[in-house]
Design goal:
The complex is a heterodimer. Chain A has five helices and six strands, in the order αααβαββαβββ. Chain A is of the alpha+beta class. In chain A, the strands form two sheets. In chain A, strands 2-3-1-4 form a four-stranded antiparallel beta sheet. Chain A has a two-stranded antiparallel ribbon with strand order 5-6. Chain A is extended. Chain B is an alpha/beta fold. Chain B has 13 helices and twelve strands. In chain B, the strands form three sheets. Chain B has a seven-stranded mixed beta sheet, with helices on both faces. A three-stranded antiparallel beta sheet of chain B has the order 9-12-11. Chain B has a two-stranded parallel ribbon with strand order 1-10. Chain B is globular and about 60 Å long. Classes of the chains: A alpha+beta, B alpha/beta. At the A-B interface, helix 1 and helix 2 of A face helix 2 and helix 11 of B. Chain A: Pfam families: AsnC_trans_reg (PF01037), HTH_24 (PF13412). Chain A: This is Leucine-responsive transcriptional regulator. Chain A: InterPro entries: Dimeric_a/b-barrel (IPR011008), HTH-Siroheme_Decarb (IPR050684), Tscrpt_reg_AsnC-like (IPR019888), Tscrpt_reg_AsnC/Lrp_C (IPR019887), WH-like_DNA-bd_sf (IPR036388), WH_DNA-bd_sf (IPR036390).
């Protein structure tokens, strides 16, 4: 049944009818499966991948390495929760290696992101240190290359 | 001098491809969705392209040995073993060719000439007949039947065999029908052939594109091993059509004979492509899995779509073609395709382009994006609903 997930992970715009045709299932089966995935929090959202750089909207993205002290009895999860609940935080991952959390923050300007780091993030009791890296350009995100043209340039040949 | 008279009659008399006119039309037309071209829409996976580029950077720009790099032949040998339980020695049983097509050509040139007969099941890839005719041998066509799902049956084969038969071509998974032959069905063919002095040319270029069960090679039957030449290659499996990489495997005597022609005509397959092919065999199973999965989804969409239009369409289990019957529309294959192209800007190929028995059918290739396929199905449905109006 994971085939449905693989299909909509690539393109969530497919209709249930189309997914049914692709998987050889009935529309009702597809509907039921998707409903179940949503209920079980396996499908957690349907966001759209947008190349904001081609719009007039100004935005700045930063990847922040965060070292934290895990809280007694709560481990990293509670610490992470305090951080990822800020709406500025777009992604938050627990890491192995040299630091603990990757926090991806989006703001309207560098100043806004810097303020968030200095006033909201660094001031958290459990945060030991942060290292902020600003994203200069997105080449590829979620498996999609942003500037790639998909033009069919196959020539007419008889085979 | 009449220059036309200088051309050999069997070349001169070869009719030009009947579908040339379609290509001429689409060159003048915008926004055509082509389900006509028989090649993957995917670009060659990056690791394979990168290996080709790297070989150029390192200056690997010389000939390889005639049969192809030994490393590549060894990798082909391992691949055939792990995929299809076929045992071929890299030393003298594998010839790297310029696409599967060259393998077909040199095999026929090594085996047949005037007076010999080559059995060709149709509908099938047009090169079998062409290459046979160019050798001076006589093609003997078996008309495969829709009711058999275009599989080769022992009865049809038996009827076609004469004392002059030297080669039988076994083209499965099949272009243009998408038909495959499972082990049981091949076993029945083996029964017919095992005691006869006939070489089998088994074109398995679409082997990896098998959607139900596993591909079975006729060469995996012990009694057929020595009398079969297996043709395979990288074009369809790894989306490498433009690299022109194929190979032929068989008994050392057969491969040696083919190598003689190959070394005079071609020298060796392109070196850059050989390096890329090596990477393909070593590190691209995941890429192949992904592509096959995607083809399979498109296949289901196409079968579902054509059947909902009321066309009789058996389920193709291999390659990337659908071969629906359009007789119910009252149009010939040619009329159907030409009208569809002019009215709805969809290119598909008339079935009779692959043999006379393909009349009444059309070939639609689903090596095209899912978006294109949904759009094409919509337009074909609209076209069919207006026929006769």
């Amino acid at each position: 049944m994971e085939e449905i997930l693989e299909i909509i992970e690539k393109n969530s715009k497919y209709t249930e009818k189309e997914i049914a045709a692709m998987t050889g299932k009935t529309v009702e089966e597809v509907q039921a499966a998707i409903k179940k995935y949503e209920e079980d929090n396996i499908i957690v959202g349907y966001p759209t991948l947008i190349n904001w750089e081609r719009t007039s909207k100004e935005s700045v993205i930063a990847l922040i390495e965060v070292k934290v002290t895990p809280q007694r009895g709560e481990g990293f999860d509670k610490v992470a929760e305090r951080i990822y609940k800020f709406p500025e935080v777009k992604s938050c991952y627990l890491m192995s290696g040299g630091f603990d959390l990757t926090v991806i923050v989006e703001g309207k300007s560098m100043k806004e992101v810097a303020l968030f780091v200095s006033e909201r993030l660094s001031t958290q009791e459990c945060v030991l240190s942060t290292a902020t890296h600003f994203v200069l350009k997105k080449y590829k995100d979620k498996g999609t290359i942003f500037e790639e043209k998909t033009r069919d340039d196959r020539e007419a040949i008889f085979i | 001098m009449i220059i036309e008279d200088m051309i050999l009659s069997n070349v001169r008399n070869m009719p030009p491809s009947g579908i040339r006119k379609y290509f001429d039309i689409i060159n003048e037309m915008k926004d055509v969705i082509s389900l006509g071209v028989g090649e993957p829409d995917f670009v060659t996976p990056w690791n394979i392209r990168e290996a080709g580029i790297y070989s150029l950077e390192k200056g690997h720009t010389h000939y390889s040995s005639n049969a192809g790099f030994i490393e590549l032949r060894e990798e082909i040998s391992r691949y055939l073993k792990r995929k299809y339980s076929l045992d071929y020695s890299a030393d003298n049983q594998i010839l790297v060719t310029v696409g599967g097509s060259e393998g077909i050509d040199v095999a026929l040139r090594a085996l047949v000439g005037p007076g010999d007969e080559v059995i060709i099941p149709e509908p099938s890839f047009v090169a079998y007949k062409g290459c046979t005719v160019f050798t001076g041998a006589t093609p003997v066509v078996i008309n495969l039947r829709h009711e058999d799902e275009f599989k080769l049956t022992p009865e049809l084969l038996e009827k076609a065999i004469t004392p002059k038969t030297k080669v039988v071509i076994i083209p499965f998974p099949n272009n243009p029908t998408g038909a495959i032959m499972n082990r049981e069905e091949l076993a029945a063919i083996v029964e017919v052939l095992k005691d006869k002095d006939i070489i089998v040319l088994s074109d398995e270029i679409y082997a990896e594109l098998t959607y139900e069960g596993e591909h079975v090679s006729i060469a995996s039957f012990p009694e057929m091993k020595d009398k079969t030449i297996v043709i395979n290659g990288f074009s369809k499996t790894y989306a490498m059509t433009g690299w022109r990489m194929g190979y032929a495997c068989g008994h050392p005597v057969l491969i040696d004979a083919m190598k003689k022609i190959h070394q005079y005509a071609i020298m060796c397959a392109p070196t850059t492509a050989q390096y890329a092919a090596l990477e393909a065999l070593k590190n691209s199973d995941n890429n192949v899995d992904e592509m096959v999965k995607e083809y399979n989804r498109r296949r289901r969409v196409m079968v579902d779509g054509f059947r909902k239009m009321g066309l009789d369409c058996f389920e193709p289990k291999g390659a990337f073609y659908l071969f629906p019957c359009i007789k119910s529309t009252g149009l010939s294959s040619d009329e159907f395709c030409e009208k569809l192209l002019l009215k709805e800007k969809i290119l598909i190929i008339p079935g009779n382009a692959f043999g006379d028995c393909g009349e009444g059918f059309v070939r639609a290739c689903y090596a095209s994006s899912m978006g294109n396929i949904f759009e094409a199905l919509k337009r074909i449905e609209r076209f069919i609903s207006t026929i006769g109006n």
